[in-house]
Specification:
Number of domains: 1
Number of helices: 8
Shape: globular
Strand content: under 5%
Largest sheet: none
Radius of gyration: 22 Å
Helix content: over 70%
Order of helices and strands: HHHHHHHH
Amino acid sequence: MSMDASIPPALRRLIRATVAWLNSWWRLLQFAVQMLPLAFSPASYRGANRNLLAGHIVRDTAPNLAWYGVLSALVSLVLIRIVVVTSQSYGLSRFALEMVVRVLVLELIPLTAAAFVALRTTLPAGLEFSQSRNSAANTSDEELRQEFFPRVAAGVFAVWMLAAVSCVMTLVLAYLSMYGFTPWALPGYTRVVGQVFNPAVALILVLKIVFFSFAVGLIPMASSFYFSSSYRAKVTHGLYDMVRLFAVMLLIEIASLMGNYY
């Protein structure tokens, strides 16, 4: 009697699922390690490679920036108004600006920017690109540089750009909503914002956006690099990538909350 036959079927399935889960994370780490030297290689930014990279960055960033900018401005105005009215009704007007900055700029905008880029760009692009490939076998360094790195870099840059522009726009809208078109409130406004953005909080915000961008750029393209050419398999992995990506984003968000408030 073999050892495998002595293991209950449920336990065997659990073991296979655990091994597959660990293997998928190991492959993601390997893919990230392959992308890292390309990011620091001057050859990735020269000649035809530079044009490929610029094209992907523009295609992934410009449409998302327009749509997300409009949606972010509308949602920010609504939330700012809700916070201001609520704080006034409870006699907490002096805390309204700090609440807006903490809720919108520190928490919601980076998370929604990463989710927006993932749903509109990297996840669909990763699935579409994977259907044009047969396998990861015999993938050359030049293919990594010309096909994979521009897509990864474009996803990373799109998250950075959307988050940065939306944070600045929200700070401007918060000032205009609370004080109107007057320069006299700027000293008090900058003092409150500066108190919120102490060095530790600013560092956590930057790290959160960076890790969000890495997850959004790397996870979909890692599946395109490794998995087979079966359409059904790639659709399944596309759904799995979505779950894994948002699980990673949730863990990053939890870590940032613990860093900011504990």
